[in-house]
Design goal:
- It is a single chain.
- Helix content is 43%, strand content 25%.
- The strands form three sheets. Strands 3, 4, 5, 6, 7, 10, 11, 12 and 13 form a nine-stranded mixed sheet that branches.
- It starts with a helix and ends in a 5-residue tail after the last strand.
Length: 313
């Protein structure tokens, strides 16, 4: 059978207009050329597709059966062309990524730089919120992927959540000030007595550290409260106090030094999430792989305070 896409497109246009002349105009074809395409299609299929009359053309039973199949085949062909265009260098597309603020200045910054360098034509959209808000945006279709942080791995029937890293929280201080301890680790009780810079209450990290102090029966000495991540790091660099932060943010920050917390250590799991019923475009899948590879690289650079746990590229 010699049926081709041009014949099917011509058939669908005639079926929709019910008129060969108007269909030919829509397709920018001469009417005789259109008529020949339909005649060839009817010959290939061995069935008459239209009843022709002076008032127009109507579908036969065979034509009515073919119409939904033809539309589906044309739609599939369009999807294939779009996917192949993305595959051959990712010449177009969009990725909507969500991330928590602490990840935006570390893992996300590196991953987006790598991705954009390789695929500059892809539109990138970033949403910065806490993990719960990001999952809401995933559920509503506003995001394709979300990087979330949790004290334990998260699961839900609505989402596929894949852990990338388990990261320790460490105590940071200014590299221009004396170390908070000469030991390899500092106890939470010692940290509570140091002047602290603490995050905004919207941060997942704030909830985790507050819970740790509460469980230990401790009240931290807070000197600045409600700061965002960039401000916390700058305040600590200038010697206003110490802060408990993810180990990852120390990379390439010579103005800060860190020390690990003594047992029990505080950790967070960094995971990548997407809707469970989601079929990613090629651009989104390449972004997922880029993030996973970047996470593995950061874990290697950060050493013992970060551990890669999966989501291979």
């Amino acid at each position: 059978m010699g049926v081709n896409l041009e014949q099917l497109r011509s058939f669908v246009e005639v079926a929709e207009f019910g008129n060969f002349t108007r269909a030919a105009e829509r397709l920018h074809l001469a009417q005789p050329s259109l008529s020949r395409q339909i005649a060839a299609l009817e010959q290939d299929l061995g069935a008459e597709l239209f009843r022709r009359s002076r008032g127009g053309s109507t579908l036969t039973i065979a034509g009515e059966s073919l119409l939904p199949l033809a539309r589906r085949m044309l739609s599939d062909a369009q999807s294939i062309r779009r996917e192949l265009a993305e595959l051959s260098g990712l010449q177009r597309g969009r990725v909507r990524l969500g991330a928590t603020p602490t990840l935006s200045i570390s893992l996300v910054a590196e991953a987006l730089n790598t991705f954009h360098t390789s695929y500059p034509a892809i539109d990138l959209h970033l949403s910065e919120h806490g993990s719960r808000r990001l999952l809401d945006e995933l559920a509503s279709g506003e995001l394709d992927l979300a990087l979330i942080t949790t004290s334990t791995a998260t699961s839900s029937e609505r989402f596929t959540v894949t852990p990338l890293l388990v990261e320790e929280l460490v105590v940071i201080s200014s590299s221009n000030a004396p170390p908070v301890t000469t030991r390899d680790a500092v106890g939470l009780a010692e940290v509570a007595n140091l002047p602290q810079i603490v995050f905004s209450s919207t941060y997942d990290l704030r909830s985790a550290t507050d819970a740790a102090f509460l469980a230990a029966g401790l009240t931290p000495d807070v000197v600045v409260e409600g700061a965002e991540m960039d401000a916390v790091l700058r305040f600590v660099e200038r010697g206003l106090g110490v802060a408990i932060v993810p180990a990852m943010v120390l990379i390439d920050r010579p103005g800060l030094r860190s020390v690990r917390l003594a047992e029990p250590r505080l950790t967070r799991t960094i995971s990548i999430a997407h809707p469970a019923d989601f079929t990613p475009t090629i651009a989104v899948e390449v972004m997922r792989r880029t993030i996973a590879a970047t996470a593995t690289g950061l874990a290697a650079r950060s050493g013992a305070t970060m551990r890669n746990v999966g989501a291979g590229a």
